[in-house]
Amino acid sequence: MNLVVLCIGSVLTLAGIILYSVSIIIYSIPKKKSFLAMLMAITGFLPWIFGSYLVFYKGLWLGISLFQEFSFLNLIKHIGFVGIGYVIVLKFYKITEIDRAIAEGQINIAIEESHRRNAT
Predict the structure, then answer these.
(1) Are 13 and 52 in contact (CB under 8 A)?
(2) 8 A C-beta contact, residue 47 and residue 17
(3) What are the pLDDT digits (tens) for 69-103?
(4) What ranges do the domains of the chain cover?
(5) Element of type H or E holding 100
């Protein structure tokens, strides 16, 4: 069961990062509101949820078992879960900062003329 959760979570995290990044690029140019844009933006929660699951549950909460029976293999495993979850959350935070910079006008995205006519 744990392996299934980790596999599904990592696949959904990858899909969430890709869809959120695409939604930043596609929907930040003309501020169109659509149901698809909302769904693509909501996928941004998937990496955060999975990263938090790795850090807090697999890393810290299950790491309490080290007090009952200690082994270096379990210690390395729990430190690894905390590290991987932290990296996922940190890198996804950087992606959201790119979105914020685009929204504030600090980063400009060039639009081809054919797309500009279709947007208006």
Answers:
(1) no
(2) yes
(3) 989 999 999 999 999 999 999 999 998 888 888 77
(4) 2-119
(5) helix 72-104
